[in-house]
Amino acid sequence: MRVLLVEDDATLADGILRFLEQEGYRAHWAASGEEADRRLGEEAFDLLVLDIGLPGRDGFEVLRRLRSQPGRTLPVLILTARDAVEDRVRGLDLGADDYMVKPFALPELGARLRALGRRRQQEQNLAIRHGPLLLDTAAHRAWLRGEPLELTVREWAVLGVLLSRTGQVVSKEQIIRAITPLEGELSANAVEVYVSRLRTKLEPAGIRIRTVRGFGYVLEEHRP
Ligand code: CA
Q: Which end of the chain has fewer CB atoms < 10 Å from its terminal CB, N or C?
């Protein structure tokens, strides 16, 4: 895992970099916000450790720029001064995932980075996201608003077909054709039953499966 440490205090940075290398990370150092921006634009990192108090372009600005680009979900841990509660709040509001208050113990930094790394790994394995719904197609598990969602094999299969064509009308015949070879014979009535069960499970979270009479179903685009 590649970590970028943004810290203007060279002594502190040196200690953190050594620690990260011992922990098995490939650790890189940027001494200013400008350098951090440049490297984030040019290189791929797995974690960002970002000091807020930097001369010139500060950590807030680096974070704001990073999060304003679509798809930049790089986990960020910010480093703030002791007692700077408003800094932590602002950093979290800008999209930081965690924070540490200086001075901190290096093993605690290590533990927090491991947690962020695990979360990153889990998210990368998740193949399908639809608003508050997450499907891990490899593990056959689903989450709704972060809570595990129980789906039967056939509910899972019907949902998979609808999700693959979000916003489009999918006929019962298309659902049957997609599922029968995998899960065995499926009737039109059975499709109705599975769709009805999926509605019960998904509608409380704002996910709607609309019936288009005579045509089929539409899993509507999610609008938060
Ligand atoms: Ca600093």
A: C
Are 10 and 99 part of one and the same domain?
Answer: yes
**Which two three-digit tokens encode residue 144?**
């709704």
Size of the chain in residues = 224
pLDDT (0 to 100) of residue 73: 75
The 10 Å Cβ neighbour count of residue 37 is 17
E strand or H helix at 195, and its extent?
helix 188-202
Q: What spacing in Å lies between the alpha carbon of 8 and ligand 1's midpoint?
A: 5
CA distance 28 to 175: 50
In the reported structure, the alpha carbon of residue 117 is separated from the centroid of ligand 1 by a whole-number distance in angstroms of 24
Strand partners, 210: 218
Neighbours of 155 (CB within 10 A): 18
Task: Check residue 224 and give its pLDDT.
Answer: 60
Range of the domain at 91: 2-125
Predicted local distance difference test score (pLDDT) of residue 129: 82
Q: Model confidence over 68-88: pLDDT tens digits?
A: 876 567 899 999 987 788 999
In angstroms, rounded to a whole number, what is the distance separating the alpha carbons of residues 100 and 97?
A: 11
Give 23 Cα–ligand 1 centroid separation in angstroms.
23
Is position 224 within any domain?
Answer: no
Q: How many helices (H) and strands (E) does the chain have?
A: 8, 12
**Domain count within the chain:** 2
The low-confidence residues of the chain, meaning pLDDT below 50, are none
Say if pTM beats, i.e. exceeds, 0.70: no
Q: How far is the CA of 87 from the centre of ligand 1 (A)?
A: 13
